[in-house]
Amino acid sequence: MRLIVENRFALLALVMVALAALFGVAALTAPSAADRAAEERSGVVTRVESAVRACPAPRGGDGARSETAAFAPVGDGEDGGSLVAVRNEAAATPEGSDGAAGRPWNSAADDDRHTVLRADGGAAAGLEVVQTTVGHGDDPFATEVRCPEPSVSTWFTAPGGEELDDLRLFLANVDDTAATVNVDVYATDGPAFSDDTRGVTVAAHDELELPLNDLVEVTNAVAVHVRTSSGRVAASLFAERGDTGADWVPATTPPAERHVITGIPSGEADKQLIAATLGDDPATATVRVITDEGEVTDAVQRLEIPPAASSTLVIEGPLGRRPGTLVVESDRPVVVGVAYQRSGDTAYTAATPPLAGPLDGRAVVPATPDGTATQLVFGAPGRGGRVVVTPVSARGQQGTPQEVEIADGHTVAPELDLPGATRVLLVEVADGSGDVHAARVLRQGSGDGQATAVQPLWPAPSAVRLPSTSDSLISVVR
Questions:
Q1: Cα–Cα separations (whole angstroms), residue 283 to 81, 224, 276, 286, 332
Q2: Sheet holding 82-87: strands in order across?
Q3: How far is C-alpha 219 from the geometric centre of its chain's CA atoms?
Q4: In angstroms, rounded to a whole number, what is the distance separating the alpha carbons of residues 115 and 117?
Q5: pLDDT computed for residue 149 by the predictor
Q6: How far apart (Å, rounded) are the C-alpha atoms in residues 236 and 169?
Q7: Residues 135 and 40 both lie in one domain
Q8: What is the pLDDT of residues 139-193, one digit of tens each?
Q9: Do the domain assignments include residue 95?
Q10: Do 212 and 354 belong together in one domain?
């Protein structure tokens, strides 16, 4: 035995024999090709057991009040789990009371630091977290941000121009290791970057702000891509404009050849689509407009987008004063979003995945702040849809579910009969429904002084499908 060990080639041969035996056993015990194909189609469904969200410090005027709100529905046979909020610091201690599944949770937002929410068990399954800031008294002001989860890639679209006073990116690293971030900016005349947006280090449990004004001051529109080469960050984008107010810009779906955007508010305002393409070739996009009266068939528009650049398209003509949904289809992958602007008021909405069962058929609206009005907007760009909206009180009691029908190719902003004690709204796609896209429009005040914010609703799954693996070292070790 000693001679074998001392001989390097003999030792290598033994290792190769052992590996061959290991893979041989794995091959003999592996499922058949038919079984593997079935498993790949279905994947492995597993419950969501943990979740992390990071809410940026609020930005608002004097006297504005900010609130962080969270909710996770109770699943069948689940306990309540736990939800804890802490400042984004290495040795932070919990702030406020703990949360649990089925019970709306809210707390005053931290004024100068990201708030990190960590949930496990039932409190993580279907968790949604938003931060809302509203004005006080006779000074309407409304902003809302869906608190992001840490990611390696996040996309935004926003308007530029001379009226843009501030476009600022907020990055938070909630992990125990540093992250390295690159920020790609696609302006109307091509990519824009600086030393401040390349190889940015965000230390563990640290955060930073990146002003982007110098990169977008001469462009009418911009797409922003936040990506990490190591680690991950939670990214939020805030846009402040001179005469049209300020708001958080929601993240949009990654580059694709088809997107659906809903939640475009009703009312008279400047409404524009922002689109950007990433590669070295131009893109041509077709834009379809869907309102409560159906698709505006004589208003199909085309948008030409230069290579690695952004472009805009005015859409208030086809929409008029009605709420709407856009379907954007292009010959190359693009990213898209919509800006809504009028005197003293601005809001943004973005593309979202559809609400479609069985795993992604539910969305959560976790906050209806006092002194505001909530309107849900649903778009069914293809086959008609049907959703069930259930109000939830501050104590977690569910009210009477209300059904909403969305005809083929229509947008619907239903008048819901909600109890005064409503704190949370659950939105669930009914069995047999077509794909539905949804958003919540939040308003404070009325008339010319009204303030508007939009939250595009993403699916809030309690379980996710994991890809299956076979005939690989990973599957053998697993």
A1: 47, 18, 9, 10, 6
A2: 50-55, 115-120, 82-87
A3: 25
A4: 7
A5: 97
A6: 6
A7: no
A8: 788 899 999 999 999 999 998 877 788 899 999 999 999 999 999 999 999 998 8
A9: yes
A10: yes
Round the average pLDDT of the chain to a whole number and report it.
86
29-45 tens-digit pLDDT: 445 444 444 444 557 88
Q: Are residues 41 and 59 in the same domain?
A: no
How sure is the predictor about 5, in pLDDT bands with cuts at 50, 70 and 90?
very low
The burial of 433, by beta-carbon neighbours within 10 Å (0-12 exposed, 13-18 middle, 19 or more buried), is given as buried
Taking alpha carbons only, the member of 426, 350, 387, 369 closest to residue 148 is: 350
For tokens 């005015």, what's the residue?
314
Q: What is the pTM of this model?
A: 0.88
Residue 445 has, within 13 A of its CA and on its CB side, a CA count of: 18
- Which residues, listed in sequence order, are joined to residue 69 by a DSSP beta bridge? 106, 130
Q: Which of 208, 192, 211, 191 is nearest to 200 (CA)?
A: 208
Q: Which helix (H) or strand (E) holds 342?
A: strand 324-342
Give the residue from 303, 431, 409 showing the smallest Cα distance to 361: 431
Amino acid identity of 211?
Answer: P
The two three-digit tokens of residue 206, written as one number: 């640290």
Beta pairing partners, 84 = 118
> What DSSP string runs through 120-181?
EGGGTTT-EEEEEEE--TTS--EEEEEPPPPBSEEEEEEE-STTEEEEEEEEE--SSS-EEE
Domain residue limits at 216: 50-461
- 358 and 399 inside one domain: yes
Is 56 in contact with 129 (CB distance < 8 Å)? Answer: no
Among 348, 296, 299, which residue's Cα sits nearest to residue 146? 348
**Which residues face 380 on adjacent strands?**
410
Nearest 5 degrees, angle CA 240-CA 425-CA 172?
A: 40
User: Do 189 and 321 belong to one domain?
Assistant: yes
- Residue 385: which of 412, 363, 360 has the closest Cα? 412
Query: Residue 253 CB: number of other CB atoms within 10 A?
Result: 19
CA distances from 15 to 8, 11, 18, 124 (A): 11, 6, 5, 43
d(CA 347, CA 144): 9
> Kindly report the CA angle at 125 between 121 and 129, in degrees rounded to 5?
110
Q: Tell me whether residue 176 is in a domain.
A: yes
Cα 222 to chain centroid distance, Å, stands at 18
Q: How many domains does the chain have?
A: 2
Statement to judge: residues 153 and 211 lie in one domain: yes
